[in-house]
Amino acid sequence: MSRIDRQFAAALANDRKLLIPFITAGDPSLESTVPVMHALVRAGADLIELGVPFSDPMADGPSIQRSSERAIERGAGLRFALECVAQFREQDAVTPVVLMGYLNPVDILGAEEYARRAVAAGVDGTLLVDLPDEEAGPFRDAFAQSGLEWIGLVAPTTSTERLQAICQHAEGYLYYVSYAGVTGTGQALQNEGSSGVLARLQEQSSVPVVVGFGVRDAESAKRVAADADGVVIGSALVDTLSAADDPAGAAEGFLRPVREALDGLR
Q1: pTM, two decimal places
Q2: What angle do CA 221, 50, 234 make, to 5 degrees?
Q3: What is the pLDDT along the chain (266 residues), one digit of tens a residue?
Q4: Is residue 33 within 8 Å of 75, Cβ to Cβ?
Q5: Which of 27, 31, 46, 49 is catalytic?
Q6: Residue 68 phi/psi, 5° resolution?
Q7: Distance between CA atoms of 48 and 43, rounded to whole angstroms?
């Protein structure tokens, strides 16, 4: 059983909603990334999504775009993200880490080499937002050979046929984008029929279904998690960190009320 599967099985067995924070590697500073990761775990994170800085983050809104730009200016990229995970693993061998980003850096390195380096650093899975399921077969195969899990992405516009295929291939968890748009616009689950889509996903998927995009605080997380196995929270956390004198303290202070709100759903 993978680290993601073990962590999530234990959480769901205790009726615990999954809480997955997203941060960008290298922002708000290079040296704060790993301390922030540990702080998020202390605050109740079940898994950490670590964003790989990219020059053209087309699926991301202004907050994460700016964080990626700042990180790149500091020299952060895929290599730095892997270094952060390896350093994180020196103290935490339990909490899963998923790299979230875009295809280009993976394609340049090669799927096999990327997967080998990622697993060696302690990465558990990868979510590539611009790689459609129809073209993902060779990457899934290469990742599987190294034990790197493929995280599927589903949107409100996903057809029934594609939804079935993605559910069939998904590992670790399924990431449901709660609306058609970019991250950070604060529109969580505003599209008509989202609850119905989530119900169908949970029926078809053999892995937990979490909701991201637009979850900004404890109240919105609690509302969204009522129809899902958990939530991903990113842009609001990234904004909080960008203005913090003490990023690790700010991360813990931001996430703990979200954890408490989700635990209130038991």
Answers
A1: 0.93
A2: 30
A3: 899 999 999 999 999 999 999 999 999 999 999 999 999 999 999 999 999 999 988 778 899 999 999 999 999 999 999 999 999 999 999 999 999 999 999 999 999 999 999 999 999 999 999 998 899 999 999 999 999 999 999 988 888 888 888 988 889 999 998 755 444 444 444 444 467 778 888 888 999 999 998 799 999 999 989 889 999 999 999 999 999 999 999 999 999 999 999 999 87
A4: no
A5: 49
A6: -65, -40
A7: 12
- Count of beta carbons in the 10 Å neighbourhood of residue 203: 9
The total of other beta-carbon atoms located within 10 Å of residue 164's CB is: 13
Marked catalytic residue, from 27, 46, 60, 252: 60
Q: How far apart are alpha carbons 103 and 109 in whole angstroms?
A: 10
**Known active-site residue 15:** no
Q: Is 60 a catalytic residue?
A: yes
Reported residue count of the chain is 266
